[in-house]
Amino acid sequence: MSGAPFPLAIDPAARPARSVPADLAARLRAALPEGVVLTEEADRTAYLVEERSLYRGEAPIVLRPRSTEEVATAVRLCTEAGVAIVPQGGNTGLVGGTVSAAHEVLLSLGRMNRIEEVDPLNFTMTVQSGCVLADIQSAAEAADRLFPLSLGAQGSCQIGGNLASNAGGINVLRYGNARELTLGLEVVLADGRVWNGLRALHKDNTGYALKHLFIGSEGTLGIITRAVLKLFPRLTDRQVALCALNDPSDALTLLSMARGRAGEAVTAFELISSFALEIVERHTGGQTPFAGRHPLYALVELAGSDRDGTLRPAMESLLESAFEAGVVADAVIAESLDQAGNLWRLREGIPETQKKAGGSIKHDISVPVSRVPDFLRRAGEAVETAMPGVRICAFGHLGDGNIHYNLTQPEGMEKTAFLAQWERMNAVVHDIVAGLSGSISAEHGIGLLKAGELLRYKDPVEMDLMRRLRDALDPAHLLNPGKMMGRGGG
């Protein structure tokens, strides 16, 4: 693996010290249909470069199965040869969770992309793990239902990767993470056996809920091949407002007021820093509806399935009360779907436009919702002391305490010099997160990028339990080795 602008989070030598046998590709080709096994460099390249170009994979063999049976066959043959397997979905991850080494085989699930069943009466959908998230959303909508998982990468990310990383997104406040949206799973285990937990039951109290072991495990315990997902009533009314605020505590008060008045209709509550909005305006031509600049903004969405038009008055009443209480400095409510889309694009454009503003040191953190203002204050003071002039691009899901606390290089500082401070600045931010009983990874996962930090911040007893689970399900540590656990943990 190569291409990281900073030291790897783990020592590659800690991974299984095996090479790929010269005859493994031939054995795989003999057991699998034509087109499943790729060995030519030109065919493999797209699977070896990850989203942020921090790492480059080196797997000499890429597998593209179409069925669970083919996955199981591939896993069994690789396990018999002692060769590690790296499962990969849409390759949109941000922490190097699907990066492969030269002694590993990469298994892409992208051709397992069938939506097998939509059951609108049971409010469920059964899908293969290679289904693109946007296609799942469209299939639900065609059945007058909603699958609420929504991410910036939804046009290319796959549901298997979403489940393996327990993806979050903008609707967690109302619907929960990917874990809460899953009823059943089918998983290929490290020995090639298939666990069929593909049950479309809303209640099942017959023993351990094994699905929860695999959701969020980043492919280290098993390879998810199919899933039963929960659907919800389709939303027919959306009201979107952008609010200008003077202080993070005002955002917290506004969130409390919104939930107290509108309850579950509060679908999203996004926090946006002034600098984050500034770079979107600068690089996209988008404009905020406000005359002046404010320290902070909140994007609020109320949504429901009723057609009686009650959400618009609810939003107006909420903002009127917020103005009277001095919580909101200014606000605008979208008058049309186009205007609502324009407001959302201000939020959605942040990750791409931040790239144009210079190098970034990114943090996907969460703290208790009530501690978000404390975090923003402490982190702001600490990073400015550690690196004067650093520009803070903070945004994220205030409703669930998840803030993307990204640092953009100071003006006049070289990008390479800035990125050389990656680990030091991570420690500055993550120490504050730990002090607030927070998490260093709210929704992106651990992968290679944060494996070392997980060892630093995770409770030793918890790490021991995780290793014991890994040893029980994959004693040879051949499934996505090196990810999550760090040195010595597989």
Fold and architecture overview:
It is an enzyme of class 1 (oxidoreductase). Keywords: FAD, Flavoprotein, Oxidoreductase. It comes from Muricoccus pecuniae. Its EC number is 1.1.2.4. Among the domains are: 115-233, 2-Layer Sandwich (Uridine Diphospho-n-acetylenolpyruvylglucosamine Reductase, domain 3), CATH 3.30.465.10; 237-345, Alpha-Beta Plaits (2-Layer Sandwich); 358-444, Alpha-Beta Plaits (2-Layer Sandwich). A hairpin with a 4-residue loop joins β5 (115-119) and β6 (124-128). Mean pLDDT is 93; it is low at 1-15. By secondary structure, it is of the alpha+beta class. The two termini are 17 Å apart. The longest helix is centred in the middle third of the chain and has 15 residues, at 248-262. The chain is built from 17 helices and 19 strands. Helices cover 34% and strands 20% of the residues.
CATH topology of the domain at 115-233: Uridine Diphospho-n-acetylenolpyruvylglucosamine Reductase, domain 3
Rg, Å, rounded: 23 Å
Helix content: 25-40%
Q: How much strand content do the residues show? A: 15-25%
Number of strands: 19
Q: Report low-confidence residues grouped into runs of 5 or more.
A: 1-15
CATH architecture of the domain at 115-233: 2-Layer Sandwich
Report on the biggest sheet: 8 strands, antiparallel
The backbone outline, from C-alpha atoms, is globular
Structural class: alpha+beta
Number of helices: 17
CATH class of the domain at 115-233: Alpha Beta
Mean pLDDT score, rounded?
Answer: 93
End-to-end separation: 17 Å
Pfam family, one: FAD-oxidase_C
Keywords: FAD, Flavoprotein, Oxidoreductase
Protein name: D-lactate dehydrogenase (Cytochrome)
Domain FAD-binding PCMH-type: 55-234
